[in-house]
Amino acid sequence: MTKDDEAARDDAASKQRENATEPAAEAMVPAGTNATRTAARLSEYGFFFDFDGTLAPIQQDPQSVQPAVGVLAALSALAARAAVTAVVSARPVAFLAGRLGAVPGLRLHGLYGLEYSADGGASVRTSPEAESYVPLIARVVADARAAFPGALIEDKRLSCALHFRADPDLEPRIDAWAGARAEADGLLLQHGRMVVELKPPVETDKGAVVLRAAAGLAGAWYFGDDLGDLPAFAALDRLVAERPGFHAVRVAVGVAEGRGAALGGRADLLLDAPPRVPLLLDSLLTEPHGSGAP
Ligand SMILES: [Mg+2]
Predict the structure, then answer these.
(1) N or C: which end of the chain has fewer CB within 10 A?
(2) 107-138, pLDDT tens digit by residue?
(3) 225 CA from centroid of ligand 1 (Å)
(4) How far is the CA of 293 from the centre of ligand 1 (A)?
(5) Dihedral of alpha carbons 154, 160, 165, 167, sign
(6) Neighbours of ion ligand 1 (CB under 5 A)
(7) Residue pLDDT, tens place only, 187-212
(8) Dihedral (C-alpha) 221, 255, 159, 95: value to the nearest 10 degrees?
(9) What is the number of alpha carbons within 13 Å of residue 213 lying toward its C-beta?
(10) pLDDT tens per residue, range 22-68
């Protein structure tokens, strides 16, 4: 997609928002999330987003996934004002950079934090412990492709993702194969929606990323849609418990599509689908600055 396409898309999104009815706009930032408190100290807040299913609608073909309308503009506006604006994804940084790399100031955490880029993907820092697993992961990818010729086996360099969205009947066989392989090679298993991933046994999850990035923040919002996002919600719980006055908001996305259910019970706010996220951010960014009182 060209920059012009993106601009046109974001322009269309802002027109859509202008046409949105007042009640819908109001409902975007419910009182329970205390948006005024965030708006008053936005420059001390961190915003963390999962990508697939949260900023971008899920697609049958994982490679065709693109950010929802308005996401790039909303993230750009947010990154210009918040202390931290970051995407924390199971995807490699290279993939995220292709979709989000044009957003100035956006941090990209790939592969659950094993990869990191602060400059839109121009330079990528890889966890040194994980790097040594690259040859083993390459063998796992080759073996998985041989074992499941019809399935999408995604080579993420530092992890191997076995997708069964296109053929859900494969789930038990893929589960069994991945479980055996994890055991044999000393790899970690990560279950997601319609996907199982094999990754290096390097302790990392989205929660660890949030905790590392949280130094000095007055508060943080996390947006997610899947099981892999639960550790990030737990990280926010921990920050609230450990830091007096820390303000956390947990947002579950995808509730309308029956997703986000695993997170729904732990969320402060439920959004029905990814296009809601930029609408929420726009509301937050235009929220009148209040007293900041809880
Ligand atoms: Mg997701």
Answers:
(1) C
(2) 999 999 999 999 999 999 999 989 999 999 99
(3) 5
(4) 32
(5) positive
(6) 50, 52-53, 225-226
(7) 999 898 899 999 999 988 999 999 99
(8) -70
(9) 33
(10) 334 334 556 556 788 888 899 999 999 999 999 999 998 889 999 99
DSSP per-residue letters across 257-268: GT-SHHHHTT-S
From the CA of 294, how far away is ligand 1's center (Å)?
A: 30
Paired residues of 161 in beta bridges: 154, 197
Task: With CA atoms as reference, report the closest residue to 225 among 54, 92, 102.
Answer: 54
The sheet carrying 195-199 orders its strands as 152-155, 160-163, 195-199, 188-192
In order of their start, the domains of the chain are: 3-17+36-124+205-285 (3.40.50.1000), 129-199 (3.30.70.1020)
Give the closest residue to 89 by CA, choosing from 182, 193, 205: 205
- Please state, rounded to an integer, the average pLDDT across all residues of the chain: 87
Under 8 Å between Cβ of 233 and 222: yes
Give the bridge partners for 155, in sequence order.
160
pTM given for the model? 0.78
What's the average model confidence in pLDDT over 143-171? 94
Q: How confident is the model at residue 16 (pLDDT cuts 50, 70, 90)?
A: very low
Average pLDDT of the segment spanning 223-243: 95
The active-site residue, picked from 50, 205, 229, 282, is 50
Annotation marks residue 61 as catalytic = no
Give 149 Cα–ligand 1 centroid separation in angstroms.
25
262-272 exposure pattern, b = at least 16 Cβ within 10 A, e = fewer: bbeeebbbbbe
Please classify residue 128 by burial: count the beta carbons closer than 10 Å to its beta carbon, then call 0-12 exposed, 13-18 middle and 19+ buried: exposed
The residue count of the chain comes to 294
Dist. CA 223 → ligand 1 center (Å): 9
Share of the chain above pLDDT 70, in %: 84
